[in-house]
Amino acid sequence: MSKSFDMIVIGAGPGGYVAAIRGAQLGLSVGIVEREHLGGICLNWGCIPTKAMLRTSEVFHLMHRAKEFGLTAQGIGFDLEAVVKRSRGIAKQLNSGVGHLLKKNKVTVLMGEATIPAKGRVQVKTDTGVEDLSAPNIVIATGARARELPGLEADGDLVWTYKHALVPKRMPKKLLVIGSGAIGIEFASFYNTLGADTTVVEVMDRILPVEDAEISGFAKKQFEKQGMTIREKAMVKHLDRGKGKVTAHIEVAGKVTKEEFDTVISAVGIVGNTEGLGLEALGVKVDRTHVVTDPHCRTGIEGVYAIGDIAGAPWLAHKASHEGVMVAELIAGGHPHAVEPDSIAGCTYCQPQVASVGLTEAQAKEKGFDIKVGRFPFIGNGKAIALGEPEGLVKTVFDAKTGALLGAHMVGAEVTELIQGYVIGRQLETTEQDLMQTVFPHPTLSEMMHEAVLDAWGRAVHF
Questions:
Q1: Active-site entry in 238, 442, 450, 462
Q2: Structure pTM?
Q3: Is 322 a catalytic residue?
């Protein structure tokens, strides 16, 4: 006998479980299907456990700087097994929290593999058999997984994906990270800080290629100061695996050289989890492993929606969650605003942190804007100096004609927290005058946000 719902969500990652909860809050009967872990990749194998590990490396780094702060710390070391145990414990705690929230909101949870045999129908293969479900609205939130390139496939021993890097069996001595997006750079930062001799290879002309070029360049200098080797416009062509070592064939400017490493982390992008759902037979369009949707996440097939990583860039948990809310409200008869990708912040939790929202300077110029650019360095901020974090930069990009904030870009301590101020500014269509007239508290890092706006109009005071 089929169970009927108003809405069925496939996938319980950030977008999926938020969609389910919001739908239930709006009075819909909701079922959610998950094949692995409540909370999805982000909570269990991504955003949360990586931040726990990066916090460990940050504290470790500060302990080595104890003398700068008038402190004494001796015999500084780490227990990798304990570091991982803490990280996994935090993920487990939040996984349980998602289960509690779904239960509290009376969402029916089914653990198993879902397929969509026809519009309005979902079949779930569970440990005990097959369950038939029906609903006029189906939300696909199955997320994505690590992309693997031929010759660079992970084996869990010498070559790792992000999952292997989160539960390492050993501490790498000489590490190669392939790819310098957020995932690659965060793992490079973690292992480099703990002492691994780390090399990052990036096929594009700069690391963190989605960021503003000036911010990427600043970050690169800081990473190199920390001992990382950065190779841009480079490609790992092949990996020869031996006993306890990997020989990487690295091509730069047409010349291939060989280098030995004991560990390789492949972070070359993601692939949408579209297989086995029955999307092709249903008529849902898939482009390069990602479901094609309109701005409201509708697939073009009535009653079928796709949210989060499977629906394309930006591949961010907070984007997925917001899409989940939007779709639930749409299904419940509301008229929510579409998610605007340009107003979604991107954050990378390396050391120093990197955060941005909106257009880069180059993108603004390409779009034909007459722009004003403001900059303010951390060295000009009292709080940054007091924290012992004088290396960083806040950059703003404005439309010179209207004063609209086109983009904001930061590198330095705690910028992943600061960026939300500019996100709110963009959401409220704030102009440079609004920001200039806002009183920022002193002493705070946020004062640099004010000064970077003032600088765009030649009014910066403290630098």
A1: 442
A2: 0.95
A3: no
